[in-house]
TrEMBL record:
Protein name, UniProt field: CENPP protein
Keywords: Coiled coil
Annotated organism of origin: Pachyramphus minor
InterPro entries linked: CENP-P
Gene assigned in the entry: Cenpp
Keyword Membrane: no
Coiled-coil intervals: 6-40
Length: 190
């Protein structure tokens, strides 16, 4: 009976040690994120946040104003989706590394362009110097249902090698639009 009681206590101690370790790691991560910003930037953010919350408590924006803004944003989004053909279905972002002058984030994005589905995974490396921030896409992985079109496969491979997201989105938009036209045309003759 004594061994069982000791084992229960040992298990509890081990669980608490693991919880302490996880909390310590989380605390260090938060500390690392907070050291990324200068004290001046933190104070500006706090003052800005206080002004915003005071403005909200005074009721500067009524629910009808917020509803009008939301409707306007939804209209703009609908217009952009019709214009480009892109409809994003999911997006996730995870910070992999953060230092004072460098941030690495991993992004996952999926959606459709007209009737073509796509998924993207890439890392975004942001480097900050005194006066500018530069961003570089690395480890780009594109998954598309290209069917039997080897040209699309070659294009996707070259875009992945260069890490050129802008070219991918521009070309996919044009290709998907014409793909949709061809599909409708062939359906018409069937």
């Amino acid at each position: 009976m004594d061994n069982n009681a000791y084992q229960v206590y040992e298990d509890e101690i081990q669980a608490l040690e693991e919880e302490i370790k996880l909390l310590t790691e989380k605390y260090e991560e938060i500390q690392q994120e907070s050291t990324f910003f200068s004290e001046e930037e933190i104070l500006k953010s706090i003052k800005s946040f206080q002004r915003e919350t005071q403005g909200e408590s005074r009721g500067h924006e009524s629910p009808s104003d917020l509803k009008a803004q939301l409707e306007s944003l939804e209209t703009d989004l609908s217009f952009l989706m019709k214009l480009t053909g892109f409809q994003f279905t999911s997006h996730s972002k995870k910070t992999v590394e953060r230092t004072r002058d460098r941030t690495v984030q991993k992004h996952r994005l999926s959606g459709k362009c007209h009737s073509l589905s796509f998924q993207l995974e890439f890392q975004l490396l942001e480097m900050q110097s005194k006066e500018k921030v530069s961003s570089v896409v690395t480890d780009l992985n594109i998954i598309m249902e290209s069917g039997e079109d080897s040209g699309v496969s070659k294009f996707v491979s070259s875009v992945e090698e260069r890490g050129d997201l802008l070219t991918f989105f521009r070309s996919l938009s044009t290709y998907a639009e014409w793909f949709e036209h061809r599909r409708r045309t062939f359906l018409h003759f069937k």
